[in-house]
Structure of Malate synthase G:
Amino acid sequence: MTSMINRAGLSIDERLATFLETQVLTPLGRDADAFWDGFAALLADFVPRNRALLAKRIELQSQIDDWHIDHSGKPHDAAAYRTFLENIGYLVPEPGDFQIGTKNVDPEIATMAGPQLVVPILNARFLLNAANARWGSLYDAFYGTDALDAPPAKAGGYDKARGDAVIARGREFLDAALPLVDQSWADLADKDDGTLQDESQWVGFTDKGLLFQNNGLHIEVVFDRNTPVGADDKAGIADIMLESALTTIADCEDSVAAVDAEDKLLAYTNWLGIIRGDLEESFEKGGKTLTRQLNGDKAYKTSAGEACSLSGRSLMFVRNVGHLMTNPAIRHADGDEIPEGIMDAVFTSAISTIDVEGHAKYGNSKAGSIYIVKPKMHGPEECAFTNDLFDAVEDLLGLPRHTIKVGVMDEERRTSANLGACIHAVKDRIVFINTGFLDRTGDEIHTSMQAGPMMRKGAMKGSDWLLAYEARNVAIGLKHGLSGVAQIGKGMWAAPDLMGQMMTDKIGHLRAGANTAWVPSPTAATLHALHYHQENVFEIQKSLPQPAGLDALLNIPLAENTNWPEDELREELDNNCQGLLGYVVRWVDAGVGCSKVPDINDVGLMEDRATLRISSQHIANWLLHGIVSEDQVMDSLNRMAAKVDAQNAGDSTYIPLIGNEDAPAFSAAKDLIFKGVEQPSGYTEPLLHHWRKVKKAG
Ligand SMILES: CC(=O)SCCNC(=O)CCNC(=O)[C@H](O)C(C)(C)COP(=O)(O)OP(=O)(O)OC[C@H]1O[C@@H](n2cnc3c(N)ncnc32)[C@H](O)[C@@H]1OP(=O)(O)O
Ligand SMILES: O=CC(=O)O
Ligand SMILES: [Mg+2]
């Protein structure tokens, strides 16, 4: 039973209050009473503003819905539609010329280009792994994935044929990134052999190897004849270690299921462990108990013998939740829950203050900044709210102005359409814009829900709005001076097992001008790092083509022809239902917020709340416009539930969907579809939280 205590008129979960007071405020030397008084005053200022912003979302959406209903059956008049959006204040005037003024940004964000890893904050094992993913073994990444074009490894220990292919591919990489004079890396006899074409690429000696640099990223060639691989290798090379995830986002948002004080406490405790540097997790793997901790720095010596080090850990961001949800962990005197986004801003900043005030074992930001990713903001007013909130949090914690930096997810249509103004609203603290195309697709469907039936989900990827969105984001970021100061980032690779395809496709993100892009795992980070050796993003950014304009962005992805054959309809529905059920059942029953779920072609896809938003909104749209019937949806849900049950048969804790159709998981799935049209912005959080709480209570 949760015990609540009173602090400055707020009712706070006792465990959470004790955590903050003893683990955070005391080590920081902050007075708890003054803190809670300040927190209550901050809430008094910001809660009404937060509510007003949510009300404005609803008002705008209802005006857009009405416009489409009024214009139904007529050809879409793009000019009239744009004027209408201007008239209702959905589109606002451009802010004109300005450059962002962010200061004290770490080089991993400002001047380096490389992968960005995202990790669910509630999973300490993964979180530690992610923080340590600054360095990754290229040999392991090739050996274990389809990024290597060679026959798969045979079971039963080390497969030498595959190992040889890995080594050959590794040499190819070294020849391209660190070319030698008149020689290939494959010809080297030992560590002292060979001369670099560009000798400035050599950085120094590590414990067992040589350290190099290319396009700002480090490469350690490990020479060790005492390992099986090194012993067999002509030059004694045992591995190639790549600087991989330059930055990592510890996610409190779409990849976690956090619905109450217990869950929020775990999130904040894990963040504290990462910041303080003492997070530790023990787990069983391969029949052994392993204990994982944060890695230390990588020591090396320069040719002159000077001792230096490189960070052994990824630079950490924390993603707060957006402005929508509230959480029962803290309530006002009248019993109302406080906004979770405000709670996250205050708690994660307070914890990060331990870093910027120098109490951490390793230290995260050497520049003295706190990096927060803010998702799902709709337009400049909501960005301005975040900016003011972060000002207030800085005042509450006694931090210098703009210590708290913000990464703006460009993932709602009103933000994409007014991106310059959004950047302007946070111009002195912005450290990234990132195209969260998954949420953005969900919002695209929801915003134009009443306009007509949408094209198939797969076709959306090539649609006008999406291409315009991606290109405009980069162009607007460059126009306002993000290059060299902040990241221009691109979205998630959502097929964690298709690394070969990632190697082909994801280099496109760099060629589009992004200096970072999201990856789902440390292995993907190491492989994606190869792209940054291949292309120099900062050079690419100097000569990008002019992007499409706002009209292309506002082009609604309606289906041109809705006469889909039965088998295509069924395939679309089944695919959406399978992903939706496979994700929701783990969210509601097991509290897992990010899962790898097989699609109908048995390709494991990363599913999180944003992909759920797409599938649920897509089905809701087709239902609304009569493309599919309620019976067809139920038929698909039932057939796919059986499939999802079979996929989870090996999990002894799994509760089947079939036979439990009225239980929380299946109920959540049905609600997400059948109540999809009325969900705010098509978000899945309200229903997921509701049904998870029912499950937890149950
Ligand atoms: C739209 C958006 O908002 S995208 C952002 C949200 N999405 C994410 O954060 C994706 C994060 N990724 C993940 O959660 C996972 O990779 C999943 C769910 C996609 C797949 O998970 P699994 O099926 O367990 O992965 P798999 O079995 O292939 O690999 C597990 C191993 O990889 C590691 N791993 C996988 N993903 C990550 C990660 N993101 N960070 C750190 N380590 C990871 C695990 O630690 C584990 O290694 P270990 O046994 O040594 O601990
Ligand atoms: O948060 C990322 C997205 O694609 O949505
Ligand atoms: Mg998102």
Summary: Residues 389 and 404 are 10 Å apart (CA to CA). The pocket of magnesium ion (ligand 3) is lined by residues 254, 375, 409, 411, 436, 438-439, 610 (CB under 6 Å). The mean pLDDT is 97. The chain has three domains: 85-133+246-279+311-553, 137-243, 566-697.
